[in-house]
Write a structure and sequence with these properties.
Elements: H1 17-20, E1 31-33, E2 39-41
Antiparallel strand pairs: 1-2
The protein binds zinc ion (ZN).
């Protein structure tokens, strides 16, 4: 039952590769390195505040 391996200390946050594809800000990584040297989601393509579901109608 190796479902959900928590032994993966990823430094970078979860980024949607689909959204990051073609992004020139993060070069398709989905995450950018801040001034403090930490990984953060790319505000250009990830845009967490933006609604996920597309418009209907
Ligand atoms: Zn990006």
């Amino acid at each position: 039952m190796t479902y959900g391996t928590m032994a993966a200390p990823e430094s970078n946050p979860r980024a949607n590769a689909a959204l990051a594809d073609g992004c020139e800000v993060c070069n398709g990584w989905g995450s950018v390195i801040t001034f403090q040297g930490r990984y953060e989601l790319c505000q250009a393509c990830q845009s967490p505040t933006e609604r996920e579901c597309h418009d209907s109608g």
